[in-house]
Design a protein that fits this description.
Blueprint (H helix, E strand, L loop, with lengths): L11 E6 L1 H4 E2 L3 E2 L1 H14 L4 E6 L2 H9 L8 H24 L5 E6 L1 H5 L1 H16 L3 E6 L13 H11 L4 E6 L20 E2 L4 H4 L14 H13 L4 E5 L5 H6 L6 E3 L8 H9 L5 E4 L1 H8 L10 E5 L7 E6 L5 E6 L4 H7 L7 H5 L13 E3 L1
Helix pairs in contact: 2-4, 3-4, 7-9
Length: 374
């Protein structure tokens, strides 16, 4: 018997639904499924604040435009999203209105998350909507997003949203009922995991690709979402959206789906932003001694441990910190020097910085307060 989960104190909940749960290729937005979802959310909303992260705009637009399949070009995807988003939101508005719940649309891009002022503005908007009793319906802004400013999938977007608003739980509703040891559609011995306490290499190796023609996400993106959420102190559950009363049963402690336990030493809000919201502008290669000092001893990164600089960046940018020995990224942080200056002080002692640069504004390449072990 699986252990009972202590989720009774959840007061702020983020629910993500995939395209397959709220749309169909033939009709676009699926009215019956959306009404069922609205009823599920309404049933657990008393005493709780809920944010819904939804996919389905492009699928809905494809059906409305009669395109016959998911478009490949960015302009066609953007056009389909523009047509589909309004139709999808209208269906949500009708469905939630039956339960007396006002909704509001929030469209985000990666740029909204990586730019610190816009990140804080998004947080303020969402928390104000919740305070006013509005149910935010969030999606990526596919009408304007191109590769450079895309989050890419709503699994990761929902984890960003959960961290952004300090949620108590993130639930990913999908077409499978959890994380399995193998693909259950192909392997009859596949076993569902009830609980995952850490995203280890062994857990990552369990991912079996499962991408449908109309779906962008997969189990790999769900593990990425779990890493972001749990590092932010937010527990996460992957569960089947076709289960009856799935949200109510989860919140009652029933062991449905796969539960990802939050880290006890959760990242502070600013460090979550550094770790997950900002694409690194470059990479710093460090030696083994520097890696141990950063990862095991909580030290700052000094020039003496720096063996390589990759990319073009300026002071204040987020950069990845990589072990030069194995090539693995293990940290991210806000860098104190431009890339060119770091190339000149690479391997130097702290006392040698001024002699090489003509100035010494910082001793550290990255101060430990601006560094996150990832």
């Amino acid at each position: 018997m699986a252990a009972r989960r202590q989720l009774g104190r959840v007061r702020r909940l983020v629910v993500k639904v995939g395209s397959g749960l709220v749309t169909s290729a033939a009709t676009g937005a699926d009215v019956d499924r959306i009404e069922t979802l609205a009823a599920e959310i309404a049933a657990v909303r008393e005493g709780r604040q809920v944010v819904l992260v939804t996919s389905g705009a492009i699928v809905t637009g494809v059906a409305r435009l009669g395109l016959g399949g998911r478009p490949r070009s960015i302009p066609e995807k953007q056009a389909a999203a523009a047509v589909g988003q309004s139709a999808l939101m209208w269906q949500y508005d009708v469905a939630f209105k039956r339960h007396g719940l006002p909704i509001g649309q929030v469209l985000l891009t990666a740029q909204d998350l990586s730019d610190r002022p816009r990140y804080l503005n998004a947080r303020n908007t969402l928390t104000t909507m919740l305070r006013l009793g509005v149910l935010p319906v969030v999606n990526e802004n596919d009408t304007v997003a191109v590769e450079e400013i895309k989050v890419g999938d709503n699994d990761n977007l929902s984890a960003h949203v959960a961290a952004l608003i300090d949620a108590d739980l993130l639930v990913l509703l999908t077409d499978v009922d959890g994380l399995y040891t193998a693909n259950p559609a192909e392997d009859p011995t596949a076993r569902k995991l009830d609980r995952v306490d850490a995203i280890t290499d062994e857990i990552r190796q369990l991912v079996w690709g499962r991408r449908g023609a109309l779906s962008v996400g997969g189990m790999a993106t769900k593990l990425e979402a779990a890493q972001k959420a749990t590092a932010s102190g937010v527990p996460m559950v992957i569960a089947s959206g076709s289960e009856k009363r799935v949200l109510a049963r989860l919140l009652a402690g029933e062991p449905i789906g796969t539960y990802f336990a939050p880290k006890a030493d959760k990242l502070a809000a600013r460090k979550r932003w550094i770790a997950f919201a900002v694409p690194p502008a470059g990479r710093l290669l460090v030696d083994g001694g520097a890696r141990r000092a950063l990862a095991d001893e909580g030290k700052s990164l000094l020039p003496s441990g720096l063996v390589g600089v990759e990319g073009q960046f300026v002071a204040g940018d987020v950069v990845a910190v990589v072990d030069a020995g194995d090539g693995h990224e293990f940290a991210r942080g806000l860098v104190n020097f431009d890339a060119a200056d770091l190339g000149r002080i690479r391997g130097a002692k702290t006392r040698e910085i001024e002699g090489r640069l003509g100035y010494r504004s910082f001793d550290e390449v990255i101060h430990r307060d601006n560094l996150v072990i990832v």
